[in-house]
Backbone:
């Protein structure tokens, strides 16, 4: 059986090549006992199968090969053509069947026949950098029904051909092949508050603090920079709140009352300027940050959400790429360091 | 408030621009000639940064108390500059202005000289670090011997007629020789004490500072108090006096004596009531046991003659007993939570070590171990030197004062402290001369008017507020001494400079003990007034000493003018869980008793919320 899908709990880092970075990282988190909303991954093979069954592969490659990437209008026109073609093409039957099966399993687990899920792209390898560059971390939130998932999955695939993505790949000289992409489907968290946290100080690199940014509603507001979030710095050793700055969180994203997608709404002034996390939530987040950091053995940049029942969920984690370097002397004996305090310069070779 | 431009805040007043406060003309006569800002050194002195050493000398100096300036600065310079040869720093210069002590540190600037000193320093200081425990053990032996010597030093009176022994025994010496010799020996003991005092201190602070800077480099967001908590001793001797008081308070409650400990009663009123019952007498006996040595604490840091020992002035320990008894009756556990403190200390050390990158963990643990090795000295020397020795020494000087008063040279023994050490020597010389000759003395005419004038001068000088610093703002503060002992950093200097403008409603200092508290201010720059502190007040003082620890349970928070996170105010505040801010520069000058304050011990900000009620 060619499995185009797998439950997130069945994936590990080693699966990145077939399921993409996001799905495999979430699988790792689940394996580490970290609360991650359940869901499933769709493999890169599903996209390949889609291209083949729809007969699109040759057409896409020809279009891109003939393109002058400096011609903005031409890029936009090619993008529109490709995106339309992808959206019109049918999802291969086996992929559809697997998506239906996995979705129904989630429905059964949740007891909600129209269970809302988030559908996101799960890029891999070099394409992961591209995805970041091109701002292509498309997320389709509050998607309901297996067919809705299939539509959103196709939208993720289509997003590979947005004008910036086409331009980026062309400039990199990478036009000879179709990019690979997996898709992640996860139960939606009805977030009361959400945000991002670093397992070290993003400013100083201090490894003994957790830095949390938080705002009302879905994490979109923080990630997208739509609000000035609350900032909290928590000491990992004692769990004490080292400092906090309450932001002005004027808007929030919430599920659309119509049932599908999200809406951006204003936040009343009083609530906008109230702290959105309490001591208990901060303690839970800081504890989780420690577990995740130890699990990966490196500093992590973590997206999280807290639902209306106060349950914390981790939505995504990735390594902190730029950790500011500590300024201090690392090596040397204690005595040599004390000597330096008294102005004894470290010994240098004579004549140098 | 803090919108002063950088330019306006870049310099302090010239020491030569500071006027003599009205009515203080002639203050210079209290002090030796070399302590003044004078024309001969004007160019050099104007180009240096002088800061008021309010940590050690918050009050105008009585003439005799210069004995707490010269010997320590001789000793610190001799050890640092001539014995250990600290590469970039020589010693501490001081001047007295309007009665207050300003200091500056002499740097070594020649790179070749620094390099040459570095060779010596590594060998000499290295020897101390390598043999610390052994050297410290012998240090304690010699300090205890010195304390015994000053205590037992006999101050002979001058009898009408010498005892027959002088005549009939072969090697007798006349009383006046003994008196003059005793005075010289007392001063000699004082010189030795200060010499011993600085033997380890710089090296100890240096090890601590290295650890603290290492932490700040690798853990830039670490709260300073965590650094201090990781090092701070748990069984340090300085906590014993208060621990003994807590034990005595529990004993009092257990034996049904709590009703004697009424807030507002004097120590003698309490003792009178206790003396009336068997249980009370047993408790008093227990107290006597504790007094030696634990009541050899000073009411202040010991440097002034006015800072009496708890033995002489039990106001502080009794205020503490009253508070501890009340807490015990209320069901609180007043015993120091040693186990909790130890667990907390280990949790921090292990927690931070685990978070450091592998290559930094080794040096971190080594530096922490070294800091813990040197810490007991850094804390305990104060008990032996500043409290135990100095209170005994000043009491010994009172005995010379008593001899001078007995013969009319002074009106009261306490007047001896209005004379400089050389003037006391001179008065004793004349007393011995006149006692021997039987001629008409001048002293009784000469000294009493001088004493009266100086008392009046000191009172007026005490009303003047010295600026925190004078002279040129340095480009860099890289002297390990200034940073270690006084917490003088460029940032602190800038804050001091800004606080010179206007009447601020906000002061900043080093956050030393976390938490937020509000309450009315109690500004104290004289420990004699500690008894005026009321429950719930915020203690505002130049600096506290461990002898003040008993007062901490009563206050809501502590704010000091000077000191770092290892200062005693900081340590004791953390122990009691009270918010504390140290090193604000001039809280005692800006804040008035009764003003409502908010103290945030996590950020280091003190706000004046409102004026004292009329």
Residues:
């Amino acid at each position: 059986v060619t499995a185009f899908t797998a439950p997130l709990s069945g994936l590990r880092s080693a699966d990145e090549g077939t399921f993409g970075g996001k799905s495999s990282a979430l699988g790792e988190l689940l394996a580490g006992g970290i609360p991650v909303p359940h869901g499933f991954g769709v493999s890169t093979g599903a996209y390949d199968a889609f291209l083949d069954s729809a007969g699109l592969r040759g057409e896409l490659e020809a279009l891109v090969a003939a393109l002058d990437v400096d011609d903005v209008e031409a890029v936009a026109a090619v993008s529109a053509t490709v995106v339309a073609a992808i959206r019109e093409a049918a999802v291969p039957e086996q992929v559809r069947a697997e998506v239906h099966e996995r979705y129904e399993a989630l429905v059964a687990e949740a007891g909600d026949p129209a269970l809302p899920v988030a559908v996101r792209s799960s890029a891999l390898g070099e394409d992961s950098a591209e995805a970041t560059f091109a701002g292509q971390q498309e997320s389709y939130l509050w998607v309901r029904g297996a067919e809705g998932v299939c539509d959103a999955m196709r939208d993720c695939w289509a997003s590979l051909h947005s004008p910036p993505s086409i331009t980026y790949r062309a400039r990199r000289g990478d036009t000879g092949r179709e990019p690979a992409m997996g898709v992640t489907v996860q139960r939606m968290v009805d977030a009361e508050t959400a945000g991002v946290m670093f397992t070290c100080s993003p400013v100083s690199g201090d490894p003994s603090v957790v830095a949390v940014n938080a705002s009302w509603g879905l994490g979109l507001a923080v990630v997208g920079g739509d609000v000035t979030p609350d900032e909290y710095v928590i000491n990992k050793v004692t769990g004490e709140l080292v400092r906090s700055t309450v932001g002005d969180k004027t808007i929030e994203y919430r599920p659309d009352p119509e049932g599908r997608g999200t809406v951006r709404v204003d936040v009343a002034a009083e609530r906008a300027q109230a702290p959105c996390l309490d001591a208990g939530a901060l303690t839970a987040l800081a504890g989780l940050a420690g577990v995740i950091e130890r699990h990966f053995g490196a500093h992590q940049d973590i997206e999280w959400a807290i639902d209306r029942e106060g349950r914390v969920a981790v939505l995504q984690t990735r390594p902190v790429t730029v950790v500011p370097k500590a300024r201090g002397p690392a090596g040397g004996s204690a005595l040599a360091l004390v000597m330096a305090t008294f102005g004894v310069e470290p010994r240098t070779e004579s004549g140098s | 408030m803090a919108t002063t431009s950088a330019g306006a805040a870049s310099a302090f007043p010239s020491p030569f621009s500071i006027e003599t406060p009205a009515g203080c003309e002639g203050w210079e006569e209290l002090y030796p000639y070399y302590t003044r800002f004078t024309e001969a050194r004007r160019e050099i002195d104007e180009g240096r940064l002088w800061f008021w050493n309010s940590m050690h000398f918050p009050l105008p100096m009585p003439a005799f108390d210069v004995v707490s300036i010269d010997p320590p600065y001789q000793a610190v310079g001799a050890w640092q500059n001539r014995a250990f040869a600290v590469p970039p720093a020589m010693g501490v210069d001081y001047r007295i202005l309007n009665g207050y002590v300003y200091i500056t540190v002499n740097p070594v600037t020649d790179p070749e000289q620094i390099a040459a000193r570095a060779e010596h320093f590594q060998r000499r200081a290295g020897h101390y670090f390598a043999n610390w425990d052994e050297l410290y053990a012998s240090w304690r032996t010699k300090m205890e011997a010195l304390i015994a010597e000053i205590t037992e030093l006999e101050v002979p009176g001058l009898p009408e007629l010498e005892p027959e022994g002088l005549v009939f025994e072969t090697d007798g010496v006349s009383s006046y020789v003994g008196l003059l010799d005793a005075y010289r020996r007392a001063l000699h003991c004082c010189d030795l004490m200060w010499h011993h005092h600085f033997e380890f201190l710089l090296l100890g602070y240096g090890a601590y500072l290295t650890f603290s800077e290492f932490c700040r480099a690798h853990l830039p967001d670490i709260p300073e108090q965590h650094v201090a908590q990781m090092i701070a001793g748990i069984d340090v001797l300085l906590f014993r006096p208060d621990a003994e008081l807590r034990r005595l308070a529990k004993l009092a409650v257990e034996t049904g004596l709590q009703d004697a400990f009424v807030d507002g009663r004097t120590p003698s009123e309490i003792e009178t009531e206790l003396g009336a019952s068997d249980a009370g007498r047993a408790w008093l006996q227990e107290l006597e046991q504790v007094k030696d040595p634990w009541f050899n604490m000073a009411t202040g840091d010991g440097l002034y003659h006015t800072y009496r020992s708890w033995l002489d002035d039990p106001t502080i320990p009794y205020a503490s007993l009253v508070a501890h008894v009340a807490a015990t009756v209320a069901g609180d556990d007043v015993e120091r939570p040693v186990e909790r403190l130890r667990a907390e200390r280990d949790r921090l050390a292990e927690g931070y070590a685990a978070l450091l990158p592998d290559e930094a963990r080794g040096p971190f643990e080594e530096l922490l171990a070294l800091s813990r090795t040197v810490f007991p000295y850094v804390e305990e020397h104060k008990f032996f030197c500043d409290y135990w020795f100095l209170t005994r020494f000043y009491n010994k000087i009172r005995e010379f004062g008593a001899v001078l008063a007995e013969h009319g040279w002074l009106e009261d023994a306490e007047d001896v402290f209005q004379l400089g050490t050389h003037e006391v020597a001179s008065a004793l010389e004349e007393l011995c001369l006149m006692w021997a000759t039987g001629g008409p003395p001048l002293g009784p005419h000469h000294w009493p008017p001088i004493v009266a004038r100086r008392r009046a001068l000191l009172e007026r000088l005490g009303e003047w507020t010295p600026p925190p610093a004078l002279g040129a703002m340095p480009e860099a503060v890289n002297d390990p001494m200034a940073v270690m002992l006084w917490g003088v950093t460029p940032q602190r200097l800038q804050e001091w400079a800004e606080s010179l403008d206007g009447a601020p409603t906000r002061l900043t200092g080093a956050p030393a003990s976390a938490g937020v508290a509000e309450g009315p201010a109690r500004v104290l720059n004289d420990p004699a007034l500690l008894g005026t502190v009321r429950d719930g007040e915020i203690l505002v003082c130049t600096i506290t000493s461990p002898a003040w620890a008993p007062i901490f349970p009563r206050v809501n928070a502590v704010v000091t003018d000077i000191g770092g996170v290892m200062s005693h105010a900081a340590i004791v505040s953390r122990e009691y869980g009270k918010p504390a801010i140290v090193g604000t520069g001039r809280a005692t000058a800006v804040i008035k008793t009764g003003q409502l304050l908010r103290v945030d011990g996590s950020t280091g900000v003190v706000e004046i919320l409102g004026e004292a009620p009329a």
In short: The two ends of chain B are 25 Å apart (CA to CA).
